[in-house]
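During the reporting period the student researcher (J.K.) took over the structure-prediction task from the postdoctoral fellow and processed the backlog of single-chain submissions. One of the processed entries is reproduced below for the supervisory committee.
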Amino acid sequence: MTTTEKRTLGITEIKEYLPHRYPLLLVDRVLDVEVGKRITAIKNVTVNEEFFNGHFPHQPVMPGVLMIEAMAQTAAILSFMTMDVKPDENSVVYFVGIDNARFKRPVGPGDQLVMDVEILRVSRGIWKYKATASVDGKVAVEGELMCTIRANEKAAEQ
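J.K. obtained the following structure tokens:
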């Protein structure tokens, strides 16, 4: 795929790029990808999310750590597409850091979290991204994420 080619991904294709499954798969659709550059994806937030049972029953709010995880999963899809590979049981994406994280507004049931992730650089196996998640055009969370892709140690032992 060339860097100028754009495409969307549905949930079946997303599951080919991410090992996550319910309840931790936090990307519902990829709206747009510029391989090697940027990606836009969505997470539809519903009242049926398991975390709302405890966070908080009287005022449901999506935990900030899960919004960051949704952005990291979006970044992982972009990385695998950029490398033109699909992960297998030997691939693990590790979230290794976040800088300048800021939470700007709460996210709750009925919201659609739109994640925009841009590759800033790749150096020595560490990918750095600028990531923003918004609802209705208003930033909910932003930060610079760092991830690495490694071989699964348990798979390598077998």
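The committee noted the following: The helical segments are 11-17, 64-83, 153-157.
J.K. will present the remaining backlog at the next meeting.
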